[in-house]
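Hi support team,

I submitted a single chain yesterday and got back a structure, but I'm not sure I'm reading the token output correctly. Could someone confirm the output below corresponds to the sequence I sent? I've pasted both exactly as they appear in my results page.

Thanks,
R.
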Amino acid sequence: MFHVAMAPENQLLKYPDLNLDLGKYDYNYIIWKSLSNTLRLFKNLRIIFVSNDPHFNIPESENIVRVVLDVNAAQPLYERAYAMAAYVRSSMFDHQTAFLDSDTFVGLNLSNLFTKNFDIGVTLRIASNLMPFNEGVIFAAPPRTGLVKAFFNSYVATYEKLVQEKFFADYYGDIRRWRGGQLSLNTITSVFLDKKKAAKLALKPRICVFPVDRFNFSFEETVRYNKAQLDSKFIFHLKGNRKIMVDVLLGYLDRKPPATV
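Hi R., thanks for writing in. Yes, this is the structure output for that exact sequence:
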């Protein structure tokens, strides 16, 4: 889980396709609850919490590794792309891994995802006004780490290329602050999934596409969900303004018994 403490002047996001004030939400509360629920429900998971704040309040547990990075807090998504790339190059990358936004909650044991044969897992959503692949949830399997590294090498290289493109600068401003990770992920994933384009590449990571409805699920405020529906979700993601629904989600998670496996 990656989190950057941002100065107030960087918390207001205004783009043609996004209007979000991050300062409205209590990330201290959201992250504490996310981590504490994961610790309670899944005894076999290790959490690596990456932040620029060495004093950020998280639960004390031998299952949590705190990593403090000196990053540019005005460019959080750019810094996160490089943090993920650094992780897969490091000795810490010795287990199946989920890269998660700091407003995500684990609902089911993530170990069960990795029975599929893949290097990188992404979640797909079908909506005309949204990019199909969401960077808030990415899975990485270490058996063929060279291919995972190839994926993240392409991720950061694409990011660097898009930063230089006038079109994106005119539309979004500095995409190192926001949107750049999403654009880069969608670009490279589309290439790796395209058989003709991927055939020209020396290293071709195996990409597994998971449906967003179960593996990167977001509530819709106008929909009432029953317990059986929520019991099928691996990852809950409080995207955008859905962070106001954190207590609704906690009302469900707090009643879940710990996983037995």
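A quick pointer for reading it: The first strand starts at residue 2 and ends at 3. Let us know if anything else looks off.

Best,
Support desk
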